[in-house]
Design a protein that fits this description.
By secondary structure, this protein is mainly β. It has strands at residues 5-8, 11-17, 22-26, 29-41, 45-48, 57-60, 70-77, 80-84, 88-95. 0% of the residues lie in helices and 60% in strands.
């Protein structure tokens, strides 16, 4: 499954598949929430970085969030938001 991007009501979304870390957004922005769409193994980590899992950690989820869980993150980022999903499952990042 490939990562995709859509716009819904003016808010951006990006789909993340397990074991496929990637940038939510490059540059400054705001991460509103993460929605779990398939049960994750492990946790989700988000760093303030445009290209790697390095730099300040903005958020780390509890282990193995269930399908349908909506995690209100509500954090700003400066350089970018780099999301590292768990080892199985999918999630959607909602951001501006």
């Amino acid at each position: 499954m490939a990562r995709g991007t859509n716009t819904i009501r003016g808010t951006n979304t990006t789909i993340f598949v397990a074991n496929t870390p990637a940038a939510v957004k490059v540059g400054s922005g705001f991460l509103h929430r993460i929605i779990i769409t398939a049960t994750l193994t492990g946790s989700i980590t988000v760093n303030d970085n445009a290209a790697a899992a390095a730099g300040p950690v903005l958020f780390t989820s509890a282990a193995a969030p269930a399908v349908g869980t909506v995690i209100e993150v509500n954090v700003p980022f400066t350089l970018g938001a780099w999301l590292v999903p768990g080892t199985a499952g999918t999630c959607v990042a909602v951001y501006d």
